[in-house]
Amino acid sequence: MAGTLYTYPESFRANKVLIAARYSGAAVKVVCDPPQFELGVTNHSPEFLAKFPLGKVPAFETSDGSTITESNAIAYYVANSQLRGTTDLDAARILQYINFADSEVLPSVCTWTFPTLGIMQPNQQAVGQAQAAVKRCLEVLDSALATRTFLVGERVTLADITLVCNLLLLYKQVLDPGLRAPYVNVNRWFATCVNQPQFKAVLGDVPLCTKMAVFDAKKYNELFPKEKKEKAKKGGGEAKEESGKGSAKKQQKSDTHKKKEAEPPAEEDDAPKTAKFVDPYLSLPPSPFIMDAFKRVYSNEDIETKAIPYLWENFDKEGWSLWRADYRYNNELKMSFMAANLIGGMFQRVEKLHKYGFGSVLVFGEDYKLSISGIWLFRGQQLAFNLVDSWNVDAPSYDFTKLDPENEEHRKMVNEFLVWKGDFEGRGPEPTDGKIFK
C-alpha cells in the first residue's frame, strides 16, 4: 500500500488519507510543497495530467505506478481491514457515514465557515440554511453516538476519520461553547478522536472555537484582489479539487487554495455576492404599540412602577405576541457564567431582531444544577426565530410556549421576568444570572 500522495498543505481531504495510513502503517510519501508540487502549476502540467487527467488533488500514485483519485478512494486503499469494516454490515455502515459526511455535512460546513476564512463572501440566506442543516446533522450524530464510543464497531474506522476531518473547520471556526453545548455525545466523540495518537500525528492539537468567527473581509480582499477577478473573468483560474458539492452556488471545484487555513471554495470566478436581507415583517399592518418607546421606558424608568404598566396599557395583542422559552438541555449546564454566555451567543446571532423583539432570558439555580428560561415579545403572531434561517440557530434548543396577554398567570410570569424578581414557579426569588435582549 505504499505510494505518493500529491496535495497541498493542510488539505482536510488529504488529512483523512494520512490518518488512515497512520492506523494501517501504509508508507505514504507526501508531495505538497514547491518545487516538487505547486498547486495550479504542477497539477496542470502535461506530465501530471497524463497520470491524472482531471488535474484534481489529492491524487495518489502507488509504488507500482497505478493511480487513484478521489480522497475517499485513496483513504480506502491505504486503510486496513479494521478501518474498512470487518463484516459486510460494518463496511456498509462505514460507507453510509462517509457518504453522509460528504453529502450532508461538508457542503453546509463549507458554506458556513469559508466566509470566516476570507475565501468567499457570505450569502446570508445560504449561511442561515447551512447553519440549520449543520444542526440537523449534529442531532443525527448525537443520537447515533449516545451509546457508542465510535460510529461503527468499537474502534476507529474510516467513518470516524472522514467525519472528523469534515467537521474540523466547524469546531475550530464557528461552533462556540454555546452552539456545541447541546451535542454532548458528538463533542465527546470528536475529542476522543482528535486526541488519538494517529489523529494528532496529522492534525496536531485541535483548538476548539471560543467565539464564533465572522466574515473576514480583510483576508478576502487579500485573496481576491481586483486584478485576480479580472483574470478569472478572462478565463484564468486555479487548480480543480474535489468539490464540497452543494455548499454554495459558485463553489464548483475547490482548488484556488492560497492560504493554509482552509480549502478553496471554487476556481477563481466572481465571488458569491451577499444576499439582501428580506425583512419578514414588512407586510404586517401598522401597530399602535411602539417597541422602541417601551424599550426606552424599560431602560430609563423604574421597571415595576413605570415599564410594566406601560407594557400592559399599550400592548397590541393583534400586532405582537408573547412567548415563554425553556432550555431543553439544562442537565448539560455546568457553570452559571457559561450558561449566561450561551444566552449571549444566541443574542449576538439574532442582531437583526432588535427592531422587532425584546427578551429577558434568565439563569436559575446553582452551578451544576442550573436551568434557563425566558420570555420574548415579538412582532406578529409567529415565533420570530422560525421566520429567517439565520435566526434559528439556537432556537431549536428551546421549547417555546405562546402566552396569553389577558391571562393573569401569564402576565405575572412576564412581570417577574421583566423585573428579575418573583416566585418564578418555585425557582425564585431571584435568578442567578441573565441577559436582556433590547
Automatic annotation (TrEMBL):
Every GST C-terminal domain range: 87-220
Gene Ontology CC annotation, any one: cytoplasm
Region (Disordered): 228-272
PROSITE patterns, A to Z: EF1G_C, GST_CTER, GST_NTER
Gene Ontology MF: a single term: translation elongation factor activity
Stored Pfam families: EF1G, GST_C, GST_N
EF-1-gamma C-terminal domain span: 277-438
Record field: compositional bias (Basic and acidic residues): 228-244, 252-263
Domain of life (superkingdom): Eukaryota
Domain GST N-terminal: 1-86
Keyword set, alphabetical order: Elongation factor, Protein biosynthesis
Entry keyword Nucleus: no
Protein name: Elongation factor 1-gamma
Organism (species): Geodia barretti (Barrett's horny sponge)
